[in-house]
Write a structure and sequence with these properties.
Spore_coat_CotF-like, virion, single chain, capsid protein, Ferritin, Ferritin-like, about 60% helix, about 190 residues, mainly alpha, Spore coat protein
Length: about 190
Amino acid sequence: MHTQQRFAAHEFLETQEAIRTKAAHIELYGVLFAMAQDTHLKDILFNQQRRMLEGYDYGIGLMQGRGIAMTPHTPELRIYERPQVGLKQPSLPAPNPNAAQLSDVSIATIALNLHKTGSAVAMLWACECVDPQIRQYHATSANICQEMAWELFQYMNYKGFYQVPQLADHTMRTMIQAVQPTAEPQQPYQTHFQ
């Protein structure tokens, strides 16, 4: 029998919310996978759902006092498709308010935004945690979410679904030249902790 671990109220409630949200997203991914047409998108969704299931199980174990089996995660931004910058005849079809089936564009957009939001919220929650294991859980979840968002962005960019506008060269040069580097300090910094 596990000893009941005492958590701070906000970190306990945030972690419960994270677990509930992961459960809902796992089910949503099942629906998105079933609707997806593109095999590459289906592979992405399948692999990401597996990662989400792991995160869900880690959270359950943590809340049940079994500790965290999740190792801290250093983000890895793998390049699957070389992102392209610039617009090439962008178009966005009008949404269908009576759709019975989602397009691959909508599926990828939903999944991308799910992970963008998940990363931001999980990192915010990590910053509010007292318990180091719960803090690690949320920070790791944030890093994994941003990697999954990056993976979806690459897919969408490659397919032309998510094009990235670019500023004119002269505008970028002007903005870069407007920023000045810091001057070297004349004396070493003095600290009050000596």
